[in-house]
Design a protein that fits this description.
This protein is mainly alpha-helical. It has nine helices and no strands.
Length: 234
């Protein structure tokens, strides 16, 4: 048991931190023992980053966001699981449904390590910004929305980009790997963004009551809110 755990941990380190090609065996023969390690990394890393987003509104909002951000990833994985598996096969990938799900899980795990590494900066930024009850609260809120949206998008692209080399091993051509990579990335970003909107508040609107979910959670969509932030910030 100890040797199996050591081997799983070593493969986890190779794939997520070093990205060694030997870790391709992780996806070729998915190891269920690695799933708890990935989930723990996601809930810990994304949870800490979520707390750094919510702390601008106070400890209660930090706790809510620390819970909701990992849930967004878990729900996105669940919703996109079947879609990703079908698209991967249609686009020339030789990955099975389980292998595709495992590849996406590792991508989200790398994402969590990236945002965790940025959390000290985002914590410092939150403490240094004008308070939610200040005159500049509305402008600060809009800028926080844009900054964190950019961080999340870039971390997501970077983490899945590191798995592009993996896809080239399971597709017939590099062109098919690029096509599969593009579809999986944008599919997860699209679904994840909307789920994050449904589970709002994430950033906390100044002047509104701090609550776990909004009563009008199905009103509007994520992309309308980003457009509103862009047009009202500059």
């Amino acid at each position: 048991m100890a040797s199996l755990y050591s081997q799983t941990t070593r493969s986890w380190h190779e794939l997520l931190v070093r990205g060694d090609e030997t870790a391709l065996l992780w996806v070729r023969r998915p190891d269920r023992k690695a799933i708890p390690l990935c989930l723990f990394t996601i809930f810990a890393g994304v949870g800490v980053y979520g707390a750094s987003i919510g702390i601008w509104q106070g400890p209660k909002m930090a706790l809510y966001t620390a819970i909701k951000l990992p849930l967004i990833i878990l729900i996105t994985l669940t919703v996109n699981g079947m879609i990703n598996g079908m698209l991967a096969q249609l686009l020339g990938s030789r990955l099975s449904f389980a292998q595709t799900a495992f590849a996406i899980l590792t991508a989200f795990t790398v994402f969590s390590l990236i945002v965790l590494s940025l959390s000290p900066i985002t914590f410092g930024m939150a403490f240094d910004l004008p308070a939610p009850d200040s005159r500049d609260a509305e402008v600060t809120h809009r800028r926080l929305l844009l900054i964190h949206t950019a961080i999340i998008a870039l971390a997501g692209l970077t983490s899945t980009g590191r798995l592009f080399r993996l896809l080239t091993h399971f597709t017939e051509t590099v062109a098919a790997a690029r096509c599969c990579f593009t579809v999986l990335v944008f599919g997860n970003l699209f679904v994840g963004a909307q789920i994050s909107y449904l589970l709002r508040p994430i950033f906390g609107q100044p002047g509104l009551k701090i609550e776990f979910l909004r009563p009008d959670m199905f009103r509007g969509n994520f992309y309308e809110s980003v457009w509103w932030a862009l047009t009202n910030s500059f």
